[in-house]
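To the structural biology subgroup,

Please find below the input and predicted structure for Nucleoside diphosphate kinase, which we are adding to the shared reference set this quarter. The sequence is reproduced verbatim from the submission form. If anyone notices a discrepancy with their own records, reply to this email rather than editing the shared folder directly, so we keep one authoritative version.
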Amino acid sequence: MEGLTASLSSIRLSYSSSSSTTTFSKPTTATHRHLAAFQSPSYLFPNSLSYRINATKKNRNLNKTHIFLPHLVASMEVEESYIMIKPDGVQRGLVGEIISRFEKKGFKLKGLKLFQCPQDLAEEHYKDLSSKPFFPKLISYITSGPVVCMAWEGVGVVASARKLIGATNPLQAEPGTIRGDLAVQTGRNVVHGSDSPENGQREIALWFKEGELADWTPAQAPWLVE
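Predicted structure (tokenized):
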């Protein structure tokens, strides 16, 4: 019996000396990096506030060259807009195609002529761009061949015509617009349209002489406007 007790005591001492306390350490840096690979839950919920905030920050860094006159909203007032088919549009035989876009929309054509633009008129028309390095090239382009001058009238015609025309850069213009369908380069973007009601009146007065505009009522008018 004494021998058995001694054996049990030696076993307890041996287990006590060999056992160690188990401790838990913090995750290593590598573990943190591994966990960071998981996306925030906000990405799973597009309507969450954090998602919208992140999306807004990303949008601020986007290239804004494709933004097309965000301030220009069609009014309910009858306006006039100067639309000009540029030399490339005339040379490519697009005159009928472009005029039909505005006719089908329902605007009224008040003035139309084929015209060889002199240099002084071109410089006056584009005077706001006179400080730009491409100005001489622009004037040379506009005076290189005949243009088609048009005066259009209608409710909200200025903003609506700009939408029909499309973005200045045809590669950024939406399909279905004139430039989106018929052009590929800014320097050959086929058509010009007034960018404000005030410029519409100024440009029509610049390109048309007294007596060149017709004041008439289309037969379809009652079917277009209440």
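Summary notes: The domain at 78-115+147-212 is CATH 3.30.70.141 (Alpha-Beta Plaits). The chain has a mean pLDDT of 81.

Regards,
Lab coordination
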